[in-house]
Design goal:
Strand order of the largest sheet: 2-1-3-4-5
Radius of gyration: 13 Å
CATH class: Alpha Beta
Number of strands: 5
CATH topology: Rossmann fold
Structural class: alpha/beta
CATH architecture: 3-Layer(aba) Sandwich
Number of helices: 5
Number of domains: 1
Helix content: 25-40%
Order of helices and strands: EHEHEHEHEH
Shape: globular
């Protein structure tokens, strides 16, 4: 799974939560890095913060959706802002779901299970993702 979050603390907490559930996680600190990372080794799922400096999550999602090899990769928007129209903008950009921070671990797991039916949190089969990772 690719976690895209500009806040180092929030990124760390989310990674620990996913790793505790048995997921293999890589990270990106901004939208540009997320696009590069996903194109170099497509993840099973992307958790995309929407509010980031530089290339924000909406623009990054739109760029990712321009690449056919990433069409099947679910993107879940993650944001602290629940302003009018942001959910719709995220879905229109290509996100499959939308979660509000602070993240409820149960809601996160449900969203991932919907996005990746049959995914076994205890046995993440992407143990070798990304290639050549140490």
């Amino acid at each position: 799974m690719l976690v895209v979050e500009d806040s180092e603390d929030a990124r760390r907490v989310l990674c620990l939560e996913l790793q505790h559930k048995g997921c293999r996680v890589v990270t990106a600190a901004d939208g540009g890095e997320a696009v590069e990372t996903a194109l170099s080794a497509p993840p099973d799922l992307i958790l995309m913060d929407l509010n980031m400096p530089g290339l924000d999550g909406l623009a990054a999602t739109e760029r990712l959706r321009e690449h056919g090899e990433l069409d099947a990769v679910p993107i879940i928007a993650v944001t602290a802002f629940d302003t009018y129209g942001i959910r719709e903008a995220a879905l229109e950009a290509g996100c499959q779901d939308y979660l509000l921070k602070p993240l409820d671990p149960g809601a996160l797991e449900r969203a991932i299970r919907v996005a990746l039916p049959g995914f076994d949190f205890a046995r993440d089969e992407s143990a070798d993702w990304p290639p050549d990772a140490e």
